Amino acid sequence: MDGAAGPGEGPAQEGLQSLSRRLRVQEEEMELVKAALAEALRLLRLQGAPSSLQGSGAPAPARASSPAAPPGLPPTCSPSLVSRGTQTDMEVEMEPSPGPPGLSNGPPVPQGGSEEPSWTQSEGGGSSSSGAGSPGPPGILRPVQPPPRADTPRRNSSSSSSPSERPRQKLSRKAASSANLLLRSGSTESRGGKDPLSSPGGPGSRRSNYNLEGISVKMFLRGRPITMYIPSGIRSLEELPSGPPPETLSLDWVYGYRGRDSRSNLFVLRSGEVVYFIACVVVLYRPGGGPGGPGGGGQRHYRGHTDCVRCLAVHPDGVRVASGQTAGVDKDGKPLQPVVHVWDSETLLKLQEIGLGAFERGVGALAFSAADQGAFLCVVDDSNEHMLSVWDCSRGMKLAEIKSTNESVLAVGFSPRDSSCIVTSGKSHVHFWNWSGAAGVPANGTLARKQGVFGKYKKPKFISCFVFLPDGDILTGDSEGNILTWGRSLSDSKTPGRGGAKETYGIVAQAHAHEGSIFALCLLRDGTVLSGGGRDRRLVQWGPGLVALQEAEIPEHFGAVRAIAEGLGSELLVGTTKNALLRGDLTQGFSPVIQGHTDELWGLCTHPSQNRFLTCGHDRQLCLWDGEGHALAWSIDLKETGLCADFHPSGAVVAVGLNTGRWLVLDTETREIVSDVTDGNEQLSVVRYSPDGLYLAVGSHDNMIYIYSVSSDGAKSSRFGRCVGHSSFITHLDWSKDGNFIMSNSGDYEILYWDVAGGCKLLRNRYESRDREWATYTCVLGFHVYGVWPDGSDGTDINSLCRSHDERVVAVADDFCKVHLFQYPCARAKAPSRVYGGHGSHVTSVRFTHDDSYLVSLGGKDASIFQWRVLGAGGAGPAAATPSRTPSLSPASSLDV
Q1: Which of 648, 611, 617, 616 has the alpha carbon at shortest distance from 631?
Q2: In this structure, how many other beta carbons lie within 10 angstroms of the beta carbon of residue 854?
Q3: Which of 125, 416, 538, 618 matches a 20 to 30 Å C-alpha distance to 714?
Q4: pLDDT (tens digit per residue) in 197-237
Q5: 201-234: burial string, b at 16+ Cβ within 10 Å, e else
Q6: 3-class DSSP state for residue 401?
Q7: 586 in a structural domain
Q8: Number of structural domains, the chain?
Q9: What is the CATH number of the domain that holds 785?
């Protein structure tokens, strides 16, 4: 309906959609009824056929040819099961499936007139009988009862032409036509082997109880039934892959850096490696080449954290590292406990876990003591009171704790000359703490606070950073762009030492250093200080007396300065607010070594012939990444949010779908926009080229799939048609290998099939599409992948799915920060998988590169990009991930778990 909806049209439209859904469900039921009745007719005719066939000695008819089964699937039928749970649980129901080899591909009915007794089976394998009508508790397996056989002869019982009988006659004619077609297949007598489904099995064996054969499986998501037809090549579900795949993943590279909203996030270790974090991973990056470079570039990863890392501190020995994480929530929404890990950067082994259960919400700031070789660790959490605590690093024991302030705390640090002096700064405050425990006071001592007094100087809104000078003074950087020098008062400086010393600091000098906030201060080895500005993006080097020595400006597209670290020689490392790491010096300038997105990511596609991939998201940037060189090849500003993308099979152009209904086609070499089209005004969720590149399908949130014919070079397109029939927004779609058909999923869990070559027609008989082969498999709903859905799923737990090009494995991105690897096909309920953590937010997309050597995954809110190396069954590398049923993470190592 064009134009704005008039009064009352909204409810009317909803009513029409409801009726459409009911009609579709009824059509599915009618398909099953027709198929069952057709098989009943065939069986009735076969009852008289054996004698005539035996008398004449005629051979059994040859089986009619059928479409080839998908690769990796064994040849024909399936047991009939039901797994019932609550309305919100995922339920799996298997309905009658195709007959065994030698019979028809149509839906059978049970042989003989007796009903099968109902039974249930628990996960442990024990079985017990129950009533046929009882739904049973979740996890119960139950045969599906077929329609009573007494109903089937009615198709042949009458030839009445009265009006009341016409619909029945019409249905009977359709069934008879199907039966005639099915009779071309061989009879049961021509089968030489025993039916595996009816062969006896051991105790608790499901196979021994299966003598019904099915045509479909059915699962329920949020109470909605989803029927999936079993391909004719499936002999038994028990023969499908049942374990996790032999392939494993090893984290190869992490793109991005968390500079947008965190501090204390960039340091250089004794080895020369740069340590920083993004999502749940602490990255140890070794720059390649350059002045003072330690050798070839590369990354190692500490992956012991279970939620996003918020802060870092490096021990005075330059080897040990402390990292603190946020609390996060589990799958049920319950808050988890934040913790601090102390680990060895050389071995990546966890040495100490500090504060489990002692912190609230997260760990905001960390610092090692320096005067006593790093014996103590100071921690500030993110609770309302921002609790300040001191810990013994070697024993993991809390020595002192006190409420800090109700305002935000942004930085904490020990005085390098005296461990009894601790400083914190943040919103509208600088606090100087005296800890008596550093002097060996019994009962671990106490913490006493003195607040910094600004006096005649304007009190800034934020004191975001500070640094200790060699003479004991402190420099602070604030939101006004000022650097303040804090010195000890003369009266207190006469009583230096520990224990009872009550040192207070006052402002002795001020210098206006930057326009806007100062985000970072760094003391260099030569005694000078480097400051980094926010709004002006300047790096300024200061000598004694805060005299400016030299400066440099960071290019605007990298953002403001977030953190500064001194590298080897004269090299400087700079982290920026646009999630980039820069390397260089004040004289020669800076170049990026790590880059990333700055907002939520959704769009991902891989190049058809190179190890390159393209990403887009809410930061409106479209980025092409070189997977071999681990670098950004190019990026452009889309001006709008990019949500999906796909390369043309030639790789010459790429289509990008936006949140406004527009989609663009860009030349991958020149980065020029060669086509700009708008379909509706709602966001686009998927764009996909056909395997031959002749069509482009665009799935929209207006419930339609727009089909465009495309020129050979992909630069020009014209509207070919629309696929209309979904009752909710399009979520995923795939093309068939011949480029003529589309399979699509929608937001209300529909699976529809479309004949594009025949005019974008909806294929209402979905049973006929069961053997169609798909060029890609990214739809999250379908027979070949229904086993990836976990128990209790609400239908939104899986965001993305991708089958490998060799059709051996399928990767899944879920809403719980995990990447899963399943065997393909994954058509068994509760299928085990290999599970990999590292993302700190919902994983929005996964894709294999063109040769399946890598898998790329996108984090949502954490804006991270992970590149995983795919290792074969016999490949060397890190230990395999734990199966999904025991997804415990080894917090003390970087193994890919």
Answers
A1: 611
A2: 21
A3: 618
A4: 223 333 332 222 222 346 889 899 988 899 999 999 888 88
A5: eeeeebbebbbbbbbbbbbbbeeeebbbbbbbbb
A6: strand
A7: no
A8: 1
A9: 2.130.10.10
